[in-house]
Amino acid sequence: MKPIRLIASVFTVGFWTLMSRIMGFARDILISSYIGPGPLMDAYVVAFRLPNLFRRFFAEGAFNAAFVPMFAKRLEANEAPEKFASDALSWLGLAVLVLTGLALVFMPALVWITAEGFVGDARFDLATGFGRIVFPYIFFISLAALFSGVLNATGRFAAAAAAPVLLNIMLVAAMLFAAHQGGDVARALVYTIPLAGIAQLVLVWVATRRAGLNIRPRIPRPSPEMGHLLRVALPAALAMGVVQINLVVGQLVASDYEKAISWLYAADRLYQLPLGVVGIAIGIVLLPDLSRRLRAGDEKGAQHAYSRATELSLALTLPSAVALVVIPLPLISVLFERGNFTGADASATALAVAVYGLGLPAFVLQKTLQPLFFAREDTKSPFRFAILAMAVNAALAFGLKPYIGWLAPAVAASAAAWIMVAQLGFGARQFGEVTRLDARFRARIWPIILAALAMGVALWAASLALTPMFEGGTRYLALMILIISGIVSFFGFGQLFGAFRLAEFKQALRRGA
């Protein structure tokens, strides 16, 4: 059985996720420039969020939490893993196919539920039309998620992590071609989304075949294995549904304010960069690793994997969070302020970025804490925790709306994320020593925090000194200098405070654990 090399695998997933995020930034820069904050962009955001909402509910949520641990354990014990995966593929395909048909029929109702503020203006019809075009994407990407889970469980992370790059490459190419030809950029964008889903599915299917696994659809038939999968997956799907309800609540609040959905979308894209590269990458690698170690009775190894994953995630996330809080405007103005995206749009978006930055460590810690439950096929506890987090999110989003307006969803999301982390942390204590962060983590975490805070001071001073460059035609150079100064200062302070040792890191990377 191919072993999972934790750190090397995290960097593999992180690299491809970074490539996807870079291309995603290129996509969002083009969207902001060609379409710009307003009815078209608001409609696109609402329409594209619908398949992504259900994708996380059905595929990534339920299957990362239920399918991957169950498949990994069967793979470790050689208990007919291909048959299990084929049965799961068949039932998932049927469920998502039915969902897609219903969504196409009831699309106006879905838009009304998720963006009630659109009713009565042009955005409603635009979002409904766009939604019917993009929703079939969920069918292809849900099946792709299952094949990705199979690859991850076998310790092969590259193809699954690279698949999202295809989506962004195709969307960027479609918009550039439409703009060059003088066509409708928005329609080129939405029509390309389902085609990109097909491309992603083909990529991971081919990778699975090359890995020697023959997984193919068959006539869905009830079985005890599928019944158990459903019982484990249902609470996970509901938990992911709660997370998506939080997004819908925020969208409902923002839909009452002109351009607010566009501002929050742009802010979301920026904080999703470290979340995707660090948090999601670590969560993807940690879950099958923990599942296989627990199956083999290696609790010490499981504790080590959990501690190193948390240490690495915070070492990369805390400086990112500080940067989002300290220099949001330079980041947003350079990345998005052009074409139809104005200086006023940049200022509003930067405010949301700073708020999301306060919640970023919590969003990432969820990705290291949830596998502690999912690896044991405990999906009910995270569901209960998510219900309370949802209540906090809704109360703050609607309660703060009269006072801070469109910014309320960002504040609510960050606060709810910390509530969720607190619940996961206390709830995991029931699993014993495996969930106790080891002595090395306890010795390193405070120096990491100090290094991140010191870097923040250095970034603030550098941003003040570079202000004239940001106001002129050298803003790209200014941002590059600012980013480099942040990286250098964090690693410098980290070495000074003993947060990490580069020689030790290189040795761990060579070992892959």
Walkthrough of the structure:
The chain is mostly helical and 513 residues long. It folds into 2 domains: 6-437, no CATH class; 440-513, no CATH class. 83% of the residues lie in helices and 0% in strands. The protein starts with 5 loop residues before the first helix and ends with a helix. The mean pLDDT is 83.
Average pLDDT across residues? 83
String of helices and strands: HHHHHHHHHHHHHHHHHHH
Number of domains: 2
Percentage of helical residues?
over 70%
Regions with pLDDT < 50 over 5+ consecutive residues? none
Strand content: under 5%
Shape: globular
How many β-strands, per DSSP?
0
Through-space gap between termini: 17 Å
Structural class: mainly alpha
List the helices and strands and how they pair.
Blueprint: H1 6-35, H2 39-77, H3 81-105, H4 107-114, H5 122-134, H6 137-153, H7 158-180, H8 185-210, H9 224-254, H10 260-295, H11 299-326, H12 328-336, H13 343-374, H14 380-404, H15 408-427, H16 439-465, H17 467-471, H18 475-497, H19 502-511
